[in-house]
């Protein structure tokens, strides 16, 4: 069976463009359902892939990625949409992507509105995110043919030794973005699953209080709202937000 490598996507559909940013252990594939819905409603959609993601080596995320690189990519993605002649640009992010979508709304004047799904802002700790990444690591390595149990365990231990440094860096960026939430004066969508196990669902309510222009949408679902049981509700709410705010 051939496993297809995830790829960034760009749907060129109209003058209004939506930038979609994926999560820490995810890829642009997690944004595709939302992207297609937006495309059908005459929005152009761009979902880049953060550095280190979309490979069969989890270490790539830790070695090639990082908040500085991912923020630079976010800014480059906005510039790409401007170069494509898009007159209105919006940005949404899932989990890790939520950090940079929020930062874009704080710092990039060209972004007119946007929001977050499963945002880690104001979550008390990243222990569940760490656990999820290690689970993801073991799954990816277990799919690699020819690895002995010893080799698999050795690879997992290398990731385990490096993950905390990355999460510390991400946490610092998250705290910095949270400190500047009052800078957001444009419409800000907050989508949060009440059964989210990776981030604190109640943190979304704190963010909503900090951002005067926010709309808080709660869903009876878990973390990855773009593909879980709430995805159709989310798609409808995002469309309504884009068209009526």
In short:
The chain has eight helices and seven strands. The protein is of the alpha/beta class. It has a single domain (9-244), classed as Rossmann fold (3-Layer(aba) Sandwich).
What percentage of the residues does DSSP assign to strands (E)? 15-25%
Cα Rg = 17 Å
What would you give as the CATH superfamily?
Alpha/Beta hydrolase fold, catalytic domain
Task: Give the overall shape, derived from the CA principal axes.
Answer: globular
Low-confidence stretches: none
Helix run count = 8
| Integer count of domains | 1
Instruction: Supply the helix-strand structural class.
Output: alpha/beta
Mean pLDDT: 95
- What's the number of extended β-strand segments? 7
The helix fraction, in percent, is: 40-55%
String of helices and strands: EEHEHHEHEHHEHEH
Largest sheet: 7 strands, mixed
Task: Trace the largest sheet across and list its strands.
Answer: 1-3-2-4-5-6-7
Active site: 95 (nucleophile), 196 (charge relay system), 223 (charge relay system)
GO molecular function: carboxylic ester hydrolase activity
Keywords: Hydrolase
Domain Serine aminopeptidase S33: 15-221
Structure, explained:
GO terms for molecular function: carboxylic ester hydrolase activity. The chain has 245 residues and is an alpha/beta fold. The protein has one domain (9-244): Alpha/Beta hydrolase fold, catalytic domain (Rossmann fold), CATH 3.40.50.1820. It is 46% helix and 16% strand. The protein has 8 helices and 7 strands, in the order E-E-H-E-H-H-E-H-E-H-H-E-H-E-H. The chain has helices spanning 32-40, 59-64, 67-83, 96-107, 127-142, 149-179, 203-210, 231-244, and strands at residues 9-11, 16-21, 44-47, 88-94, 111-117, 188-193, 214-219. It has a 7-stranded mixed beta sheet, sandwiched between helices. Helix 3 (67-83) packs across helix 4 and helix 5 packs antiparallel against helix 6 (149-179). The longest helix is centred in the C-terminal third of the chain and has 31 residues, at 149-179. The chain starts with 8 loop residues before the first strand and ends with a helix. The relative contact order is 0.15.
